Amino acid sequence: MRDGLTIGIAGITGSGKTSWVRQHLKDESRLILIDVRGEHNWLPLWVAEENKSDDLEDALAAVSIANRSDAEVRFRFLLPADRDQVWVEFLGKLAYHIGNVTFILEEADIYSNANWDNPGVRCLHNYSRSQGVTFIYLTRNLPAISRRLTSNTKAWVLFRQSEPRYLDQLEARFDEEIVEIVAGLDDLEYVQVFSDHTWEKGIVTL
Ligand SMILES: Nc1ncnc2c1ncn2[C@@H]1O[C@H](COP(=O)(O)OP(=O)(O)OP(=O)(O)O)[C@@H](O)[C@H]1O
Ligand SMILES: [Mg+2]
After folding, report:
1. Is 1 inside a domain boundary?
2. Ligand lying closest to the C-alpha of residue 16
3. Pairing with 111, which of 80, 117, 121, 181 sits 20 to 30 Å away (CA)?
């Protein structure tokens, strides 16, 4: 899954977003995952080497080793709470620079809002296509995400949404048929919508 797409995964809590990532990406050999809530135990956790003064530089060096398109890179990052924006900025830009990698961002609405995108996020959705970077972001709160990011999103995985303002947002972007399906999904069911407006339903297996 390194075709340079930006993919948005949205749905209410417990609907299956995180599980979708695990199911579809567990065998991916080049993967950087921002594990905001520490849920992705299937992927090796990047751990700071002891006695390093700057963990971020250490992390960047570790990922930079993968600066060859065929080398394996499989890391998930737990972010330091007081520097999470800085880490997302640098790791996002680094994914862009190394290229040919899948970058996954949990809780994307912490890093994008109506007036602002984290610079790493902006770099990924604006420029990553040419680098073969697939950018996958997950959110419970799609209306909060910037229009720049949503309009650069080329494929969607939509899990159940129930709040009217979420469904309104979907209506502005997708056919009425899609909105009706999304409102009626069960947990773990999803609709995948492609840029040519075709869609297919699926279900996550745990
Ligand atoms: N390994 C597992 N075994 C059994 N049930 C699981 C497992 N992982 C997740 N679940 C359940 O699957 C459902 C979907 O969980 P998941 O974490 O994928 O949702 P989510 O959309 O990411 O939610 P959130 O927005 O809170 O992050 C939940 O009911 C959860 O309790
Ligand atoms: Mg989740």
Report:
1. no
2. 1
3. 181
Yes or no: say if 100 and 131 are a contact pair by the CB < 8 Å rule.
yes
In the structure encoding, which two tokens stand for residue 81, read together?
Answer: 């709470």
Q: How far is the CA of 4 from the centre of ligand 1 (A)?
A: 27
The answer, as to whether pTM is greater than 0.70, is yes
Span 47-64, pLDDT tens digits = 766 656 667 777 777 777
Does 185 fall in a domain?
yes
Rounded to 5 degrees, what angle do the CA atoms 6, 17, 25 make? 65
Its domain, for residue 103, covers 6-203
Nearest listed ligand to the Cα of residue 12:
1
What's the number of domains the chain is made of?
Answer: 1
Q: Which tens digit of pLDDT belongs to each residue from 144-171? A: 999 999 999 999 999 999 999 899 989 9
Q: Is 18 in the pocket of ligand 1 (CB under 6 A)?
A: yes
